């Protein structure tokens, strides 16, 4: 009697499996890889475009920072170039010529080594010995970069900032 029950159970499970195969056509897989590629291609495309967008923003960020450094290097050469803020700004904007929306501002400042805040024009009289005059140039850059595509939840443009401060050679 137990043998009979086992056989009956085996027969029922075979029958169910056969019905499932016929319902879903598990044996026939032609075209399934094409459907998988068609479903995954938009996801891969978005990942690729996102990586390109990230690379573009990283590149422009490096350009903006390098431009501020170039302007500060020009101004830090000597006291005459430190006072020439127009050419510091020009050096910064020409270093990143491929970014059309970039702006640069340059400032020179002086301090006394004892911590007294002074202006560069009155540095010789305001900073008494044994204190020394320290002159600095600062160049700030900013650029707006538009994204290639508009993604939901992300801004359509990014504003990147750069800053460089250098001490003027004495």
Structure description:
A hairpin with a 4-residue loop joins strand 1 and strand 2. The model has no long low-confidence stretch (mean pLDDT about 85). The chain is about 50% helix and about 20% strand. It has one domain (about 45-165). The protein has about 170 residues and is α+β, with helices and mostly antiparallel strands. The radius of gyration is 35 Å and the shape is rod-shaped. The N and C termini lie far apart (about 110 Å). The protein has a 4-stranded antiparallel β-sheet with strand order 2-1-3-4.
Q: How are the SSEs ordered, and which strands pair?
A:
Elements: H1 2-24, H2 32-75, H3 79-83, H4 85-95, E1 103-112, E2 117-118, H5 123-126, E3 133-146, E4 157-167
Antiparallel strand pairs: 1-2, 1-3, 3-4
Helices, by number, come to: 5
The proportion of residues in beta strands is 15-25%
Give me the count of strands: 4
Count of folded domains: 1
Overall pLDDT confidence: 83
The description of the largest β-sheet is: 4 strands, antiparallel
What form results from the Cα inertia axes? Answer: rod-shaped
Radius of gyration (CA) equals: 35 Å
The structural class is alpha+beta
Give the low-pLDDT segments: none
Distance between the termini: 108 Å
Percent helix: 40-55%
Strand arrangement in the largest pleated sheet: 2-1-3-4
- Give the H and E element order: HHHHEEHEE
